[in-house]
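Notebook p. 47: complex prediction with zinc ion.
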Amino acid sequence: MVTHPKVSRSLSLESVDDLEDLNLTAAGLLHDMAALQPTERSQFGYKRAAKAIAYLPMPVSDLVEAGTLRDVPFVGPASARIITELIERGSSPTVEAALAKSAKGGTVQSTRAFREGYLSHFALSQALARERDPAIVSKAGYRGDFQMHSTWSDGSERIERMVEGALDLGHSCLGITDHSYGLPIARGISMEQAAKQWIEIDGVNAKYRGRFRVFKGIEANILVDGSLDLQPEECAQFEFVVASPHSVLRKTEDQTSRMLNAIRVPGVAILGHPRGRMFNRRPGVAADWDAVFAEAAKLGVAIELDGNWHRQDIDYRLARRALAAGCVFALDSDAHSIGELRFSDYAIAHARLAHVPAERVINCWSDDRLDAWMRQRHASPQHTAKRGRARRART
Ligand SMILES: [Zn+2]
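Predicted complex, structure tokens below:
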């Protein structure tokens, strides 16, 4: 079988600018076809095939060359044809003809922009395995994850089970960040529930003392004006606050002031999934990210690389700019179950592609350094609220 000369078989990761992720491109073409299908059933077939390709552990071109593409579960003859066209010709005439014929073609084509900067599973494994300067962040120095959800809000596991899951991955700390009460759709917790959660966390910390530390966080929702759905005296009660956008994520107008206001709120330690983008679905917030990163660097607020596969937010391209601005980073899974703790690998992969040193990654810091950094986030000049219960309760 002949490989198109323009299409390289393996990924080139030496420069982030020439990253070519054919597995993701192939999955994207299948998503295009899914969107053009008249019935949910036929959409589902292409979507399932797309997911299988995005999660393949090897380059899809190897399977085309070996003639084993159809051995991949859920890849049927129509999907296999599209993928083979991509590998052999560099594009898929089948998909392009379907787009041209469909009234939805223009809309579907515009969603292609919502797949840029994402990594397939194979690209992730390449990014993690590729040799780098030892100062660059790697899985080896990663101590724990600072965005995850438990049964207190919309997660599926109790806190202690998440701790056990993290221990199985070799971690030694984590931050619990259930949703705050302003997000009822995600079963956000009241301050009364938060107080009960801290008692549970104190118990877990006592049990695992010397082996593992749970930090008391919250994922607050960034409102349209950049204020949070928590009052200042409420923010002050958590050890750290992740502030994240969950609304107005399709608007094309600039939202720089919203994001700047959010990171200026005392107590905010991490700007969570900063764009709020979603694979193949929405672009997320439009902002002058260099201005946001400059302010975050000045205030010591960490920029999150959210590793949830559908988010990958921010990606390696923006992370490079945040690095140049002097930011620190939080590389998180945003897990809602134990299995999803592994999404932190995507965050680490993006950080490696952006050449982020471990020194700039809060997930690699000691408990003492994390404590000091979180306290500093509460102690900004605007901060007048009293020191909180969560931190007192720990001592
Ligand atoms: Zn969120």
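Notes: The chain has 16 helices and seven strands. The beta strands are 144-145, 173-176, 213-222, 240-245, 268-271, 302-306, 329-332.
Next step: compare against the earlier run before touching the bench.
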